[in-house]
Amino acid sequence: MILAIGNIKGGVGKTTLAVNIAIARALQGRDVLLVDGDQQQTAMTFTEIRTEKKGSASYTAVSLSGAALRTQVRQMQAKYDDVIIDVGGRDTGSLRAALTVAQTLLIPVQPRSFDIWAIEQMAEVLKEAREINDLNAFAVINTADAQGHDNEDAIKVVQETEGMTMLKIMMGRRKAFPNAAALGLSVLEHIPRDPKAVQELTDLIDIIYNQKGE
Amino acid sequence: MSITKKPKRPTSDIEQSANDSVRTEEIKAEAFIAGASEPSVKTPTDRRQKAERQPVLIRFDPHLLRKVEEAAQRRGISRSAWIQYVLSVALEKGEG
Questions:
Q1: Do A66 and B46 touch (CB under 8 A)?
Q2: Vertex A123 angle, CA A214 and B94, to 5°
């Protein structure tokens, strides 16, 4: 499956989720291609650090942008079990190219006003993309607050947005994610193990790849 | 003894139609990607693909052109991308 992880809004945790999902799938024995479609190339930097620390990344990483992302992914997809594309931060050609080839889009959303305001624009681009490619779209609250009403308020707004399914599960704001990333690891590999972070990631992957949509 | 290549069969109407449909999808995808509010960094592949496109001079009635520009602006894409997009949709629906 080709999974795009993207949002027009930047800083929502796309790359963190992309590398964690890529590693998790690779640990399950899948042959994974991670496509870095972000100009900041954070996923590529992460992969370099991971390769230095572990000797190999356990997945293949490439950097692609614009229309080339569409053509190259279509050429390479048959060679891999899973393709995971990290794109966005803005309305770029790379984000749009990913939407034309992905079967599923995962939209991480932070429970913050700026994120919520951008979701309508994301829905507009998604609607346009569906005239070319009928892809599924899931939104997930990322870096959810431990308390307060902001998570629920954000969920309500996204639920009212057409064209995307709001997942019931949430990814908490957990230090294990940045701590693991700094070492080139996923939360599944990081010690000390954060059971909640591991459970949330496992549940998210289960929902996305089994298309439960809940 | 010489060897003669097997003659190529002419493309059937069904195959031609399938090819046209694929091409239309490609044009729509290209127009959609080109419509991004922020352009991506150009790669060698992008440049090569752009070079393969043919420039066409079309004279427009000013009133129609203004409407085209407004429509493209509403979609947030360039005039050229909008024209290509609309043409590809029309062709897909059976025009021509």
A1: yes
A2: 110
